[in-house]
């Protein structure tokens, strides 16, 4: 994330710079392979990074399907390697990280379709992956958290098994664009201008206006009953704080078990950039929520 507002020009520069990345470094204790997952007819296949414990899996295990952040317009699966490796080595479970297509070249529903294809493939190949298909968690950060929430909604509607949602400061509500403009808000890391660009690129429409299609903006869904249990974590100075707290409260009101963790003084995604007590507490709560989802 960046304090500089994301624009089409900055995005193009960032992507050109991304093509110069150094080779990915090995992750201690983790074996990683790229699997190309077939998608529905007419859609391109989806690269998925499959991270497994180096020691192997001796019994059907839980699994995490991870969706990276980046405002729907940036990022890739490689950027989530460290986060995925932490889960693999802490819990001895596989983590699958989706390299989904990005807006504005690939607006909604392309990114969600890619994540859906990855989830379907994971469930269909659970036996060969050593995964218990009843203990699959979907999770993500920022826009990845928004996609994870949308994927949980779509999976519920289609009868696909999702055991838990792990949503880190999720980007859920395009109407925040209008609210932040009305209140003249400014936030660190992910700013209101960047939020407008991200949502406009993803929706291919003015954010906060009209009614986006189902799953495009997860907070717009009126009936949240029947969704999987959730953990939602966000900082109280994050642009997404209000929308995330509201979504957590609405999940609870709909009878969905949801733990809300609010990190005092934490800007957007700051847990990935420092080792302060605030970030450490946020990470500890996240890992404890995963432990319960995997093993309880």
Question: What structural keywords apply?
Answer:
eight-stranded mixed sheet; 8 strands; single chain; 9 helices; globular
How many whole angstroms does the radius of gyration measure?
18 Å
Q: What is the average of the pLDDT values?
A: 92
CATH superfamily: Alpha/Beta hydrolase fold, catalytic domain
Q: What structural class should be given to the helix and strand makeup? A: alpha/beta
Fold blueprint:
Elements: H1 8-18, E1 30-37, E2 46-53, E3 61-67, H2 81-91, E4 95-98, H3 110-124, H4 126-129, E5 131-141, H5 143-158, E6 164-168, H6 176-182, H7 192-203, E7 230-235, H8 241-253, E8 258-263, H9 277-295
Parallel strand pairs: 3-4, 3-5, 5-6, 6-7, 7-8
Antiparallel strand pairs: 1-2, 2-4
Brief overview:
The chain is α/β, with parallel strands linked by helices and 296 residues long.
Walkthrough of the structure:
This protein has a single domain (29-295), classed as Rossmann fold (3-Layer(aba) Sandwich). Helix content is 36%, strand content 19%. The chain is built from 9 helices and 8 strands. An 8-stranded mixed β-sheet has the order 1-2-4-3-5-6-7-8, sandwiched between helices.
